[in-house]
Structures are given as structure tokens and as C-alpha cells.
């Protein structure tokens, strides 16, 4: 089995050593430079990494990645698109050997996108940027994705990739590229969702609301967790109709924690303790966190127990309040407010 690691880069010298070390077991490593003015290429040379220089104008990520892919040797079995701010964890090659034995064309793996302040993983989801040498190409100007031209066979392995980005680097170009991509492929639900989300991030609420509605009307927009996420963002864009949108979010994906958590928080802010307790309790019945990029850490941490505890206390359910308060504190043992709340719940039980 032969493995190639490839990436596109521009002014990424700070990451080259770490990137090259993490994929040292590869048979071929390629950094395709798209216009660096720093020492990216020199660093790559020092690490024994093959390089190429290309110009993509007008810029689009899929063209750059396809150009890099085209430069890989023909005898490669697996290609790993590993961005400069990502690293492969040790043991990755053994995992790919197993995938190769099973004739998997697109291995799937755990991808850690972000990290909590204490250094623990935050957002994790299933990665999909490993593929066979032939039968795949990249598509879309931004948020590009691999499109198969073969009958692919996916399989999960224990390989992991971690993302450690430079948060000072601007991603401002994404908005314009997404706007262009949405015009280029108006019926593509994935691009429509990403464009609407980008409008939401930029607080262009009216435009975001319209784009989310366009996304939801697309025949291909069938993935319920994503539709639910769209409704949750619509709720924040349209506070006058927030409850309606949150209930729609629940209807789309009642088996996901996130919509129930958002509905519980909505009722908490309005001191609707019965509604808050019902939604928070339902949220907590969902115990298996799926490996999806739409999972949100606050829905899987102490907050649902905290909301359940507060609302239970207001409803006179003091034992339930203490139990949820204990669970919340176990998840955030240094949270002084949770400590004080638990003491308050215990005092309420003592007075019964």
C-alpha cells in the first residue's frame, strides 16, 4: 500500500514542521504553494517534502485541490488531504492498511475541529478527506467536497486527525466565495446551508432568514439534523417568531440534543419553568452523541442539567433539582455558581 499526503498552502511556514512530522510515514508528501511570501517552501524543502507552485485565478479552492491531486504519482493507493493546520495522530498507517485490505475507497475517521479552554476536544465529527487515488475530484469554490465518479465503499477506522488552526488568520473571503458558489449551484443544498449560515454569522439576519428558507425548500435538503440546525439559526434571526422556529427544529430532529436544549433555554429566559423542565429533561434522555459537525458542546455539557435543576426547583421538585444540580457540578466541578446552586437545592430539601 502506498499513501500520499497532499495539501495546498499559502504563508503557512509556522505549520510546516508539525505537519511534516505527523505524516512522516507517508510514501509521498506534497505541498502545493499558491502564492506564499514567507518561508513555506523553504521549510518544506528542509523537511524533505515535495513542492509545487501554482496560480489559481480567479481563486477557488476546488481548482487548487484538484491541481494538487493531479500532481500525485499514479501508483498511490490512498490520498490524504491534510491541511497545513492539521496533524495525523500516530498509528494512522496501520489503520489505512486495514481499510486497504477491505477494499475501502473512502475511509472515514474521527476529526477534532476545535478544543475547549482546558485542552480537551470540543467539536468532533466524522472526517471524509481520505480517498483512493482515482475516482474522486473536488467540487465547489469554497467548503469544497470530494465527489466520487466511482461506486465508492466507505468504512470507519480508528485513525484520527486533529485541527489546530491559526485563529488570527482571516476567513473573510469565505463570504464572497459562498455567495458566488450559491449562484453557481443554486440547487445544491449543502452550499445553500453554508451560505445562509455565513450570513447568520455576519448578523445579516434578514438575508440569512431568506436563504435558510430557500435551503429548506430545496428537494435535496433532506438531512434532518442540518434542517434542524437551520431552524435553530432562524430562531435567532427572527426573535419575534423564535418559539415557532425552535419547535420546527425539534420536529425535524427530535432525536438530537441541540434543538431540545435551545427550546429549554428559550423557556428559561421567559421563566416558563414547566416548559423548561420538559425540554431539558427530554434533552437529557438522548445519551449517545453522534459524530456530526452539527453537535454543539453546550448541549452535551453541564448546561442541560443546570436548566433542569433550576426549573425543577421552581416547580417544587427539590430532589430532582438536587440530582440535576449534582450532575451539572460533576461536569463542571470548578463552577462556583453551580456549587452555590447545589447548596441552595440541598437547603430546600432540608426544609421539606
Write up this protein.
With 352 residues, the chain is α/β, with parallel strands linked by helices. 47% of the residues lie in helices and 16% in strands. The protein contains 14 helices and eleven strands. Helix 9 (242-252) runs antiparallel to helix 10. It is globular, with a radius of gyration of 23 Å. The model has no long low-confidence stretch (mean pLDDT 96).
Briefly note the structural class of the backbone: alpha/beta
Q: What's the story with the biggest beta sheet?
A: 5 strands, mixed
CATH architectural designation of the largest domain? Alpha-Beta Complex
CATH topology of the largest domain: Spore Coat Polysaccharide Biosynthesis Protein SpsA, Chain A
Fraction of residues in helices? 40-55%
Task: Return the domain count.
Answer: 3
Amino acid at each position: 500500500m502506498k499513501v500520499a499526503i497532499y495539501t495546498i498552502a499559502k504563508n503557512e511556514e509556522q505549520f510546516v514542521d508539525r505537519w511534516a512530522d505527523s505524516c512522516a510515514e507517508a510514501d509521498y508528501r506534497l505541498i502545493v504553494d499558491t502564492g506564499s511570501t514567507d518561508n513555506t517552501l523553504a521549510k518544506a524543502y528542509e523537511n524533505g517534502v515535495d513542492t509545487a507552485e501554482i496560480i489559481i485565478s480567479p481563486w477557488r479552492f476546488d481548482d487548487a485541490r484538484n491541481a494538487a491531486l493531479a500532481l500525485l504519482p499514479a501508483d498511490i493507493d490512498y490520498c490524504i488531504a491534510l491541511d497545513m493546520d492539521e496533524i495525523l495522530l500516530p498509528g494512522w498507517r496501520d489503520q489505512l492498511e486495514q481499510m486497504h485490505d477491505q477494499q475501502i475507497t473512502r475511509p472515514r475517521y474521527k476529526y477534532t475541529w476545535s478544543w475547549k479552554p482546558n485542552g480537551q476536544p470540543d467539536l468532533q465529527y466524522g472526517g471524509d478527506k481520505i480517498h483512493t487515488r482515482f475516482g474522486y475530484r473536488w467540487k465547489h469554490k469554497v467548503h469544497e467536497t470530494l465527489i466520487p465518479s466511482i461506486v465508492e465503499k466507505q468504512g470507519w477506522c480508528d485513525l484520527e486527525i486533529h485541527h489546530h488552526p491559526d485563529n488570527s488568520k482571516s476567513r473573510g473571503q469565505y463570504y464572497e466565495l459562498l455567495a458566488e458558489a450559491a449562484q453557481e449551484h443554486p440547487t445544491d443544498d449543502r452550499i445553500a446551508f453554508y451560505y445562509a449560515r455565513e450570513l447568520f454569522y455576519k448578523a445579516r439576519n434578514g438575508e440569512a432568514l431568506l436563504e435558510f428558507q430557500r435551503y429548506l425548500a430545496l428537494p435535496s435538503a433532506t438531512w434532518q439534523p442540518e434542517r434542524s440546525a437551520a431552524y435553530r439559526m432562524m430562531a435567532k434571526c427572527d426573535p419575534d417568531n423564535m418559539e415557532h422556529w425552535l419547535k420546527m427544529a425539534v420536529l425535524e430532529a427530535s432525536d438530537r440534543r441541540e434543538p431540545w436544549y435551545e427550546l429549554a433555554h428559550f423557556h428559561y429566559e421567559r421563566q416558563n419553568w414547566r416548559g423548561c423542565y420538559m425540554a431539558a429533561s427530554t434533552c437529557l434522555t438522548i445519551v449517545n452523541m453522534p459524530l456530526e459537525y452539527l453537535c454543539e458542546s453546550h448541549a452535551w455539557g453541564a448546561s442541560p442539567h443546570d436548566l433542569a435543576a433550576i426549573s425543577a426547583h421552581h416547580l417544587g421538585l427539590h430532589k430532582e433539582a438536587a440530582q440535576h444540580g449534582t450532575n451539572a457540578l460533576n461536569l463542571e466541578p470548578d463552577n462556583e455558581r453551580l456549587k452555590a446552586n447545589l447548596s441552595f437545592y440541598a437547603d430546600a430539601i432540608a426544609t421539606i
